[in-house]
């Protein structure tokens, strides 16, 4: 199933990449919900977290390592950040290609948004 992320992986849709290797791609979100908002995706087309298999676990671990590396490089590791995966329609998942949101750079609200003091 083709998604906007598969088109970004193919290079038919441009992105502002911050990391890429043969398995993972990370790029700035075009509608950021925080001063730092990066999407981290596997190049393997996995629709949701529910579709992750035991075979995929090393890839998931690598995604988390990439998130740690990017948090440090983007200056949010010390102050704190969120790594969010939405799974399914009730979570708000809009693109059915597994992805993580790396959010930081401001004091984040209690759930998933930015606090009212952030403008």
TrEMBL record:
GO terms for molecular function: catalytic activity. SUPFAM superfamilies: HIT-like. It comes from the Bacteria. Residues 4-113 form the HIT domain. A motif (Histidine triad motif) lies at residues 97-101. The active site is at 99 (tele-amp-histidine intermediate). InterPro entries: Histidine_triad_HIT (IPR001310), HIT-like (IPR011146), HIT-like_sf (IPR036265). Coiled coil: none annotated. This is Histidine triad nucleotide-binding protein. It comes from Paenibacillus spiritus.
């Amino acid at each position: 199933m083709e998604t906007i992320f598969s088109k970004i992986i193919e290079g038919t849709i441009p992105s502002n990449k911050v990391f890429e290797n043969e398995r993972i791609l990370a790029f700035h979100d075009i509608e950021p919900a925080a001063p730092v908002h990066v999407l981290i995706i596997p190049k393997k087309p996995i629709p949701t977290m529910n579709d992750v298999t035991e075979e995929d676990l090393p890839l998931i671990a690598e995604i988390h390592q990439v998130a740690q590396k990017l948090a440090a490089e983007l200056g949010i590791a010390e102050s704190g950040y969120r790594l969010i995966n939405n799974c399914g329609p009730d979570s708000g998942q809009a693109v059915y290609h597994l992805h993580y949101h790396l959010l930081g750079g401001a004091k984040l609200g209690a759930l998933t948004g930015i606090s009212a003091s952030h403008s």
